[in-house]
Request: fold
Amino acid sequence: MVNLDEYIETQEMAARKERRLMFKQRLAHFPWIKTLDQFDFSFQPGVDERRVKELATIRFVEEAEALLFTGPPGVGKTHLAISLGLEAIRAGYSVYFITLSELADQVPRDRTDPRWAEKLRVLSHPRLLIIDEVGYIPLDPMVSHFTFSLVCRRYEKGAMIWTSNKGFADSASVFAGDEVLTAAILDRLLLALRCSLEYAGDVTLTRAIKGRQEF
Reply:
């Protein structure tokens, strides 16, 4: 026979856990909720489902590594990023989602403005930061330098997921045309890179772990 008190306590604990998850999802600022179960791997057969599910173990968050999803609009980059963000929340990690255009709107154009340091502090705090839609708008020099500062601040301290419609070769056009700054940003990302998903015709999945690549 089920003990009524134990049953009630179990239900209350489950309800509290669900409320905490919902609260963390709101804090994450997701534009919508998408899970890995909803991702159509048949739509992108080149994406290795086994490797994506390995990423869903969220070890990359624990190890403060980076994921980069590149390709044209509509291929599921944001879906995968949000899904992994949800898995990270379920694993107990803090997550924040922001598009690069939102970031550009929020960064002060004066580095002496106290809001600059505060924004850098806020975006450095989550264990996983998702920056979506990198490449859809070109950044001015000030936001480009802020992005560099953010990547440096999070290097080996916080995991990141970037989604972009541009490959590495075209990245300078995003960061104010500054090839030196772009190289510095990519250097930090590649040093921390765990996995890169590239969508271009047939989808290919490359995996880089601390400078070692597997195909």
